[in-house]
Amino acid sequence: MAWVYLVIAGFFEMGWAIGLKYTDGFTRVVPTTLTVLAMIVSVVLLGVALRDLPVGTGYAVWTGIGTVGTAALGMYLFGDPVTVARLASIGLIVAGIVGLKVLS
């Protein structure tokens, strides 16, 4: 169950990272509120997952999910560059996440 909490926490991390773009420097109330709530949920779920997972593994996977998801959403939503090098780098992060899961 810890891995389920960790994956959900990673999705909330993506949510708050993308949400930051919509807060307009924390000047818009609704996006700011939703972003802060996503931050809280993300960290709480990470904490719950870390009861059963090693901290290094949990934190690395959490940030990896957030990084990969945020990079992908940035390309889709905001027109961030899509290059072979960028996609290969994202692939390396995914490989690291899978490796940590397999070894834990």
Automatic annotation (TrEMBL):
Coiled coil: none annotated. The chain crosses the membrane at residues 33-50, 59-78, 84-103. The keyword Ribosomal protein does not apply. Keywords: Cell membrane, Membrane, Transmembrane, Transmembrane helix, Transport. GO terms for molecular function: transmembrane transporter activity. It is a multi-pass membrane protein. InterPro entries: EmrE-like, Small_drug/metabolite_transptr, Small_multidrug_res. It comes from the Bacteria. It is found in: Cell membrane. Gene3D superfamilies: 1.10.3730.20. One of its GO terms (biological process) is xenobiotic detoxification by transmembrane export across the plasma membrane. One of its GO terms (cellular component) is plasma membrane. Belongs to the drug/metabolite transporter (DMT) superfamily. Small multidrug resistance (SMR) (TC 2.A.7.1) family. Gdx/SugE subfamily. NCBIfam families: PRK11431.1 (NF008512). This is Guanidinium exporter.
